[in-house]
Amino acid sequence: MSDQHIVSSFDRDLETIQAHIMKMGGMVERAISDAACSLETSDEELAEAVRNRDKAIDALEEQINEEAARVLALRAPAARDLRLILTVIKISASLERIGDYAKNMAKRTSVLSQMTTVSGSLAGLRRMAREVETMLKDVLDAYIHRDLELAQEVIRRDQDVDQMYNAIFREFLTFMMEDPRNITPCMHLHFIAKNTERMGDLVTAIAEQVIYLVSGALPDDPRPKGDATSVDASLAPEPGT
Predict the structure, then answer these.
(1) Please, what is the Cα angle at 93 between 96 and 129, to 5 degrees?
(2) Does residue 231 contact residue 194 with C-beta atoms inside 8 Å?
(3) C-alpha dist (Å) from residue 194 to 108, 129, 181
(4) 237: pLDDT confidence band, cut at 50, 70 and 90?
(5) 5, 109, 171, 187 - which has most CB atoms within 10 Å?
(6) Rounded to an integer, what distance in angstroms lies between the CA atom of residue 99 and that of residue 32?
(7) Which pLDDT does position 170 carry in this prediction?
(8) What contacts 23, CB < 8 A, 6 or more positions away?
(9) What one-character DSSP code corresponds to residue 217?
């Protein structure tokens, strides 16, 4: 086999892995959008579709990892290509976890549909989910175009998501104090808000990987956080539950 053929085959392997990442990213974007929509409209069928489609996201992550491992084992990639493969593995892991959080949001839709609606409680959640979805779309664009500035902008926008979460948290506290009947639905809604905030953190982690891919170094500055609530993060369910 000629060296040129080996190089061409290697390039095709990398292109295939990156195509899988973009496909996975699109599936996760849809999961966020549909999960938020199912919550807003109490659409249990749509929520079930989100839960069922999560299996395909998990399978794609597994496929990406297998293909990346095979390339590492067989190709002995140079530094730049090695950085790409390691980045792909980390991005796919973050995407899989975002998909899990979207699935968890969808799981609570059927529970909440059996409860009395807390008037005005869903608008902030919908805005927050839209912002995370837009951030994910932008960070995938940054990955494809190797756009350092766009990746940095996505990291900055995570503070907006944190501020939305803080506002929602305070709003839910008010609802619960006004009427004890709001406590149970607001607790479910709070878990959804916390999971959405964590999605934003994972999108930010993808942006950091894009910066690493382009520049060869992770961002120096610690990631700014705007979550000022006193709630223990351990109260929110972990991905996959």
Answers:
(1) 45
(2) yes
(3) 13, 11, 21
(4) very low
(5) 109
(6) 7
(7) 94
(8) 60
(9) S
Which residue bears the tokens 């109490």?
A: 42
- Residue in the structure block whose two tokens are 């610690």: 222
Burial of 79 (0-12, 13-18, 19+ CB in 10 A): exposed
- The one-character DSSP state at 179 is -
Q: Read off the amino acid at residue 92.
A: S
| Tokens found for residue 13 | 């392997």
User: Residues 22, 24, 27, 32: what is their CA dihedral angle, to the nearest 10 degrees?
Assistant: -100
Radius of gyration of the chain (CA): 20
Query: 77 Cβ partners below 8 Å, 6+ apart?
Result: 10, 71, 84, 85
Tokens of 232: 């223990």
pLDDT at 234: 37
CA distance 99 to 174: 30
Alpha helices per DSSP H over 42-147: 44-75, 79-112, 123-145
3-state secondary structure of 196: helix
Q: What is the mean pLDDT of the chain?
A: 88
Cα angle, residue 55 at apex, residues 53 and 58 outer, rounded to 5°: 120
Distance, CA of 209 to CA of 225 (rounded, Å): 18
